[in-house]
TrEMBL record:
A Gene Ontology biological process term: DNA-templated transcription initiation
Bilayer-crossing regions: none
Keyword Glycoprotein among UniProt keywords: no
Coiled-coil spans in chain: none
Protein family membership: Belongs to the sigma-70 factor family. ECF subfamily.
Superkingdom to which the source organism belongs: Bacteria
Presence of the UniProt keyword Transcription regulation in the record: yes
NCBIfam families according to UniProt: SigE-fam_strep, sigma70-ECF
InterPro entries: RNA_pol_sigma-70-like (IPR039425), RNA_pol_sigma-70_dom (IPR014284), RNA_pol_sigma-E_actinobac (IPR014325), RNA_pol_sigma70_r2 (IPR007627), RNA_pol_sigma70_r4_t2 (IPR013249), RNA_pol_sigma_r2 (IPR013325), RNA_pol_sigma_r3/r4-like (IPR013324), WH-like_DNA-bd_sf (IPR036388)
Protein's name according to its UniProt entry: RNA polymerase sigma24 factor
GO MF term set: DNA binding; sigma factor activity
This protein's UniProt keywords: DNA-binding, Sigma factor, Transcription, Transcription regulation
Species, as recorded: Streptomyces rubellomurinus (strain ATCC 31215)
Start and end residues of each RNA polymerase sigma factor 70 region 4 type domain: 103-155
């Protein structure tokens, strides 16, 4: 009976957070299919460690850290570098008022090194404090500050350097 309760709690949590996890994963990796793989791997790890995770004071933070660590660990392996990216833009799940601006930002975000991208996503998309992002990344708050600063500067440079598209108004 305890296993059924445990599984029900796990299923309820993952069902309620799957959309959010997928969005964070997409912002980290820039590819919806890869984001789905990251979420699946994170959910699998979460299930294995559910007894410990369910006792965490901040379950969302625990899960987010698992997702970021999974992403960063994947960046260190040579497998992801061998995959061929098609250059096809992902399907957009929701209507966006500034679709082209959003795509420009996603492209610029994808060009950031993994740790800078993770710091920027955690700080400005997940709205974490410096200390919370440092905990999620497993590094010092000074490292988060420098990674965020460098990431934002690179985003600004990448977005300013892009030529204006003909017929597009800013």
């Amino acid at each position: 009976m305890a296993k059924q309760t445990r599984d029900a709690e796990f299923t309820e949590y993952v069902t309620s957070r799957s959309g959010w996890l997928r969005k964070v994963a997409y912002l980290l990796c820039g590819d919806w299919h890869r984001a789905d793989d990251l979420v699946q791997e994170t959910v699998t790890k979460l299930y294995v460690h559910w007894a410990k995770a369910s006792r965490a004071t901040n379950l969302d933070g625990y899960t987010r850290r698992m997702l970021v660590n999974t992403f960063l660990a994947e960046q260190r392996t040579p497998w992801w570098r061998r995959t061929v990216r098609t250059g096809v833009e992902p399907e957009v799940a929701t209507a966006n008022l500034d679709l082209e601006g959003s795509l420009d930002l996603r492209r610029a975000l994808a060009e950031l090194p993994p740790r800078q991208r993770a710091a920027v996503v955690l700080r400005y998309y997940c709205d974490l404090s410096i200390d919370q992002a440092a905990e999620a990344l497993g590094c010092s708050s000074g490292n988060v500050k420098s990674q965020s600063s460098r990431g934002l500067e690179a985003l600004r440079n990448n977005l300013v350097a892009r030529p204006a598209v003909a017929g597009r108004t800013s």
